[in-house]
Design a protein that fits this description.
three-stranded antiparallel beta sheet; 5 strands; mainly alpha; 1% strand
């Protein structure tokens, strides 16, 4: 067989054998009878485990290796069957059956010992300790002897320091005592059964901190059998034990009797004998001349060397258990043993790393058994303690996200162990950023930190971890992003200039939650304002950015104002100069002030400098307007205009702004900004001009019409694929609000052929041909307002032709009911009112001209009565002439009256008032009032008016409603008077208006009350609309 084939055959037998050994040991832990015997059997089988691992790693595998493993496999299989038989019959086995099984197991152990003798020494090469260990194990197994009912435990009794050894010896078995020093040629002890059963020695092997009973394994089983299975593989010498403690000595010292003890034990013995004048050796009873102690250097070195070899062997043994994924109990003991080894000395951690155990431990973190996961976390923490190199190695192998996930475990021990491991790792500066980079890691830690009521320990440890992670600026940013601002604010206030700059940059980038905005503003504002005063450009830039972020939250405005930011920013805008500075501090300061002022602060009396100037003073307003005039950067102009818009809300400030704009001709600049391609600047300039319209509207129209590309550029063509923008909406609103009586502007719009574009846009919006946008409604309202403005200058023939050509009456009538916008309905009613007022002038009686030639064809007079019916041209009953909705704008012909009356039931007061105004045009003295009233009665108009009076209040609405009611009382006959008098609520409204209305309203209310016989009649003047 070739070496390759031999190696494959060896591996095919070795792996199943290792698994089989684990299964046997697991089965042994369940047996309740003869625990000591079965523990020893398990110990023998377990100690074969590392022998197989050594053979696997051997450079020169023996030729008979496969045969040896096959023989061992047969023996272990037989042992498994016997153990399972004993396990199944635990409660019913007779003594004879148990003795028979124990006899068979003894034979199996001896066969395994004989098999181990077949391993040639060459298999271990220069590893002499391995050869000696295997030889010792073989000898022990060959001499194994198990007797049912035999107690193998060695009880340790505390010796009385005042009694001699001869007195103690009467009550216990004599011990073989070796001479003073450990001889170099000492024979290997083969009677290890005694050592294995020493309770104190078991305690030495098993770490107390990790000893926890499993659910399915009894406490006694776990603490006895498993501890013995993890016993020493290295040959053990009796001389290693202290006669007093029966434990391996750490610091062996020899007293003058020649007997060696552990220093701590013999010192305590002698101290307890202080009251006695004589000192005796506790072992020999020999009187001691003095209390002198001499370090047994040779023995101490030998024990230390033995411990090193034994720890290496234990590491290998534990690794083997982890490699083959042994039973949970074996894995637990392996991890606990490794943890104990780590505690011995620092170098052992290196040995564990070199043995490749870390990947195996990481695999245990995914184990289904939570006790195993807990033990794995504890082992990793022990490896990481006080060793930065170990921490780094752990971070390279272990997935940090898995550890962080376990911090949220519902099992408290696992949760605590995961936190303690992460706390240990976070002490390494190299790993702090790596830990913080785990997705969601910092968020989980913050959540645990604030859940103190649920788990105080977890909260405390999470807080410690977060404090460690603060060393990384990137982690501080992540903490702030996840709602923990304290680290950022602390470093912003107390850190170095570089750290402050970095923290300010972070603060300017992250999004602040509603619950933290005010807290951050209170803590961050003072240091940020100080940073603005710095001469460092980077620091100033970061501070401006952070302050802009804080100021963008309106609730922070009061906090910022109290911190003195307004004075600092005004100084930056008007006074401070830093030559060569790359940032535009004026623009940054203006942006911050605009954000603060838009929050609604009281600006009129806000002091801005030490000279006593207030924000609304001529000095400040003049400076702002001058800055706008002198071609400043777009960003600065945007924020300057935003500041003016805030100040314009105050009547006093608005008056000053209007005066300065007129005097400085700044209106030219503002109108020119309408053409600026910068979106925000165009919006800001348009809004300011809209605010100035009531004070200087005609001046703005004059400037607009003289500006290139205006006013047509204010009307944008929107197609089906684009959304309506804010700028398009404010532009249409601007045109709609400019003075409607301005013939200059209306003709300019007409000549630029803007009306077809406006109508096209309206049709697209109403037909949902334009993508939805938050600006659809204001844009549509502006377009309708542009059309309404033409109805105020119908005296101009070109505009009259325009209104007829596009049938404005039908257009406004349709929009009365086709839109959901109150403003569009109000504007449409106003448009119909203006058109209806013109109907009176446009409606003329029909005239038929007869020529002499045509008279020849007319019928005789006796037939004229018949033919006249056919020749009669219909006339409008209201306007007494030939009417149409298109040519004379007749509301009756356009069927607009019904829709106007329907608008009287609208919730919006302004829509109702506009509809009443339009209805009033049909009751004017220039029309046939009686026929108009009759027509309106058929539409039940008076009831609509009465309902409007009940639902709404206001001087304008009362005047129009009372005027219509009076018309119906005078011209509507008994039917109208009856309907009006039957309304129970009208008198109360009339009385209210009579007492609280203005002169005209009181006069109309009084007149109606007289009609209703509510007050005495007396002559009154006639009132018209």
């Amino acid at each position: 067989m070739s070496p390759g084939e031999d190696s494959t055959a060896f591996a095919s037998v070795a792996e199943p054998l290792l698994t089989l050994i684990s299964e046997v040991i697991e089965s042994i832990t369940w047996i309740e009878l003869e625990k000591e015997n079965f523990a020893e059997i398990g110990c023998y089988i377990y100690r074969v485990f590392p022998v197989i691992m050594e053979l696997q790693k051997a450079v020169c595998t023996p030729n008979n290796a496969t045969e040896i493993l096959q023989s061992l496999s047969r023996s272990v299989t037989e042992a498994k069957d016997l153990v399972n038989k004993c396990q199944r019959g635990t409660s019913s086995n007779s003594e004879s059956e148990l003795k028979s099984s124990m006899s068979h197991l003894e034979r199996v152990i001896k066969e395994m010992g004989a098999c181990l003798t077949l391993i040639p020494p060459s298999a271990f090469q220069d590893q002499k300790y391995a050869e000696v260990a295997v030889q010792a194990l073989s000898n022990e197994m060959l001499s194994a002897n198990f007797e049912v009912g035999q107690s193998q435990g060695l009880q340790t009794k505390k010796l009385d320091p005042h009694k001699s050894f001869s007195e103690e010896a009467r009550n216990e078995e004599s011990l073989t005592i070796e001479s003073d020093l450990y001889p170099a040629s000492a024979e290997v002890s083969t009677d290890n059964s005694r050592v294995l059963n020493t309770p104190d020695f078991v305690e030495f092997l098993e770490p107390r901190s990790l000893r926890r009973p499993r659910k399915h394994i009894s406490s006694s089983s776990s603490s006895t059998s498993l501890a013995k299975m993890t016993d020493h593989i290295e040959p053990l010498y009796q001389t290693f034990y202290c006669p007093l403690t029966k434990q391996i000595m750490d610091d062996p010292v020899t007293i003058q009797s020649g007997v060696t003890y552990d220093r701590k034990a013999i010192t305590e013995w002698l101290e307890e004998s202080d009251n006695s004048q004589d000192f005796f050796c506790p072992t020999t009873g020999q009187k001691l001349p003095s209390r002198g102690l001499k370090t047994n250097v040779a023995l101490k070195n030998t024990i230390e060397e033995w411990k090193e070899r034994n720890e290496v062997a234990r590491i290998k043994s534990s690794r083997s258990a982890l490699v083959v994924s042994a039973s949970p109990s074996m894995v637990l003991e392996a991890t606990r043993d490794l943890q104990d080894i780590c505690k011995k000395k620092q170098y052992n951690k290196i040995q564990i790393h070199n043995a490749g155990i870390l990947p195996l431990v990481f695999r245990l973190l995914k184990d289904k058994d939570r006790d195993v996961r807990y033990a794995a976390l504890e082992l990793l923490r022990e490896l990481a303690k006080d060793d930065d190199d170990s921490k780094i190695m752990i971070s390279e192998v272990v997935d940090m996200s898995a550890v962080i996930k376990m911090m949220s475990s519902g099992h408290q021990p696992i949760r605590h162990a995961a936190l303690l491991l992460l706390l240990e790792l976070s002490r390494s500066e190299i790993l702090q950023e790596k830990i913080g980079s785990v997705p969601g890691g910092i968020l989980v830690l913050i959540r645990i930190k604030y859940n103190q009521s649920d788990d105080a320990f977890s909260s405390e440890k999470a807080d410690e971890i977060l404090k460690n992670l603060e060393s990384s600026p990137e982690n501080i940013k992540k903490m702030a992003e996840n709602g923990l601002f304290e680290p950022l604010l602390k470093h912003l206030a107390e850190g170095s200039e570089e750290m402050q700059t970095e923290m300010a940059e972070y603060l300017g980038e992250i999004a602040l939650g509603h619950d933290s905005e005010t807290y951050v503003a209170e803590r961050a504002s003072p240091p940020l304002i100080k940073m603005v005063l710095s001469g460092n450009t980077l620091t100033r830039t970061a501070a401006f950015k952070a302050l802009a972020k804080i100021a963008s939250c309106h609730p922070n405005a009061t906090i910022l104002a109290k911190s003195g930011i307004v004075q600092r920013m005004v100084e930056e805008m008007f006074a401070r100069r830093i030559p060569g500075e790359p940032i535009n501090s004026k623009s940054e300061a203006a942006a911050i002030l605009a954000n603060i002022f838009e929050a609604g602060l009281d600006l009129e009396n806000l002091q801005v400098n030490s000279h006593g100037h207030i924000l609304a003073s001529d000095y400040v307003l003049y400076s702002i307007i001058e800055m706008i005039k002198h071609s400043t950067p777009d960003e600065l102009n945007i924020n300057l205009i935003r500041i003016l818009l805030c100040l314009a809300k105050s009547p006093k400030s608005m008056s000053t702004i209007v005066s300065m704009v007129k005097e400085s001709e700044a209106s030219y600049i503002l109108v020119e900004l309408l053409n600026n391609p910068h979106e925000e600047l165009g919006i800001a300039a348009t809004k300011l001009l809209i605010g100035l319209i009531p004070y200087m509207g005609h001046t703005i129209v004059e400037r607009l019409c003289k500006t290139a590309g205006q006013p047509e550029n204010l009307i944008h063509v929107i197609n089906e694929t684009t959304r309506i923008t804010h700028r398009q909406a404010v532009s249409s609103t601007f045109l709609a609000k400019l003075p409607h009586q301005s013939l200059t502007l209306n003709l300019a719009l007409l000549r630029k052929n803007t009306v077809p574009t406006v109508l096209q846009q309206i049709n697209q919006i109403q037909g949902t041909g334009i993508r939805a946008s938050r600006y659809v409604s204001p844009y549509l309202e502006g377009l309708v307002g542009i059309l309404v403005r033409f109805t105020n200058t119908l005296y101009e023939p070109q505009i009259l032709f325009l209104a007829r050509n596009y049938n404005f009456t039908a257009l406004f009538t349709e929009m009365l009911m086709k839109t959901s916008s109150d403003e569009v309905q109000r504007l449409s009613a106003i448009g119909l009112e203006n058109l209806s007022l013109e109907s009176i002038n446009l409606s003329k009686p029909p005239q038929i001209k007869r020529t002499k030639f045509l008279k020849l064809f007319y019928p005789p007079k006796f037939l004229s009565s018949i033919s006249s019916k056919k020749r009669k041209i219909p006339t409008c009953p209201v306007h007494r002439g030939a009417c149409s909705s298109q040519n004379t704008f007749c509301l009756v012909d356009a069927k607009a009256v019904e829709r106007l009356l329907a608008c009287l039931g609208h919730e919006n007061f302004e829509v109702v008032e506009a509809a009443l105004s339009a209805v009033c045009t049909l009751l004017d003295d220039k029309v046939d009032v009686e026929k108009s009233v009759g027509m309106l009665c058929e539409m039940n108009a008076i009831q609509h008016v009465l309902n409007a009076v009940k639902e709404h209040k206001g001087e304008g609405l009362w005047k129009k409603s009372f005027w219509i009611i009076d018309r119906f009382l005078v011209k509507g006959g008994s039917r109208s008077a009856s309907d009006i008098s039957e309304d129970r609520l009208l008198p109360a409204t009339l009385v209210n208006a009579f007492h609280h209305g203005d002169a005209d309203t009181r006069q109309m209310a009084e007149k109606i009350l007289r009609h209703l016989n509510k007050i005495p009649n007396s002559p009154t003047s006639h009132y018209t609309m």
